[in-house]
Design a protein that fits this description.
Elements lengths: L5 E13 L4 H7 L5 E13 L3 E5 L6 H8 L7 E6 L10 E4 L3 H4 L6 H11 L6 H14 L16 H14 L4 E5 L7 H18 L2 E6 L2 H7 L2 E6 L2 E7 H6 L4 H7 L40 H5 L5 E2 L5 E2 L5
Parallel strand pairs: 3-7, 3-8, 5-6, 6-7
Antiparallel strand pairs: 1-2, 1-4, 8-9, 9-11, 10-11
Length: 319
């Protein structure tokens, strides 16, 4: 029996993409099929009312996980199971996308964009009630009811992201997947949007799966962090425990990229080389080609996930 205190349970989730050349090209040029293993055996839980962050470099698979959770991709293997909502039915995830300019229909006025989920889910019984709800949502995210008559291009990037949040809230979700929602914004605007999201979580009892490559943002938002590398989770722990005692070499590498105003001249050992291609990952531990602790064991055997000192989990032979 699954734990009803969890909003989401992800079990051994995997996703492969066939990125082969067309069949005729492969026959003529004698090329094999090419399979991209974007996500491999990823497991985690998100308790109700809390925030789990997935972090890692570009291409590590974290955005693919977000799309698997929201149903935009079907998994190749594993399971995504939502707990029951307040109405007893399984939760459904709504998504806040990275680029608010690309995710909003430029031909629709803002009021229509926000009203669409309300109409689709039949959450209000009349048009005046729908318009009243749209105005309420605009005020909730820090905009004016009059902004519903304008088009997305008439707003700044931060304002467009507020519109995206209002649209996500229009379906009255309990679970939001946030795919790098502030990475396209200026730093000062980022802080405003993050503070808005924290306030909404407290006010509405929301649960977040937060995707980011910026650990300073994640520290502000997340209760727990899962670090991904080349499609797998390599370390997971409570946020402050991870920052206080990072145990996987890759986690240490990520934390070393955060500017330290108190010690700007600190010694940092850069990781060797670039991340390997997910089309041809290294054998054994995928991080061994860049890891200062790598040994023959790392090259030959993939580390199993085990308990991490201080709580959480880790996949490393030498942590």
């Amino acid at each position: 029996m699954r734990n009803t205190a969890n909003a989401l349970e992800v079990d051994a989730l995997s996703r492969e993409f066939d990125v082969s050349d067309p069949w005729l090209n492969r026959v003529i040029e004698r090329k094999p099929r090419r399979i991209l293993r974007a996500v491999q055996d990823v497991s985690f839980i998100v308790p109700r009312g809390r925030t789990l962050a997935l972090v890692g470099e570009s291409g590590c698979g974290k955005s693919t996980v977000a799309r698997l959770v929201t149903g935009l991709h079907a998994p190749t293997g594993g399971a995504v199971v939502f707990g029951p909502g307040r109405d007893g039915k399984p939760l459904a995830a709504q998504m806040i996308f990275q680029d608010p300019h690309a995710s909003l229909n430029p031909r629709w006025r803002v009021g229509e964009i926000i009203a669409e989920p309300i109409r689709a889910f039949r959450l209000r019984g009349s048009e005046p009630a729908i318009q009243a709800r749209v105005a309420e949502l605009l005020v909730t995210v820090g905009l004016s009811p009059e902004d519903g008559a304008r088009f997305p291009h008439e707003f700044s990037g931060g304002q467009r992201q507020r519109i995206s949040i209002a649209r996500a809230l229009a379906s009255e979700p309990e679970f939001l997947v946030c795919d790098e929602p502030t990475s396209a914004l200026d730093v000062s605007v980022q802080a405003q949007i993050l503070n808005l999201m924290r306030w909404l979580q407290d006010e509405l009892g929301l649960t977040y799966l937060f995707i980011s490559h910026d650990l300073s943002v994640v520290r502000h938002m997340a209760d727990r962090i899962a670090v991904m590398y080349l499609g797998r989770i390599v370390e997971e722990a409570e946020t402050e425990a991870l920052f206080a005692d990072p145990q996987h070499p890759y986690t240490r590498l990520l934390l070393g990229t955060i500017p330290d105003l108190a010690n700007p001249q600190r010694d940092r050992v850069p990781a060797a080389g670039e991340p390997p291609s997910p089309l041809s990952p290294p054998p054994g531990c995928a991080f061994h080609t860049r890891c200062p602790r790598a040994s023959a064991l790392c090259e030959g055997a993939r580390p199993e996930v085990r308990a991490r000192d201080g709580g959480g989990s880790i996949a490393c032979h030498h942590a």
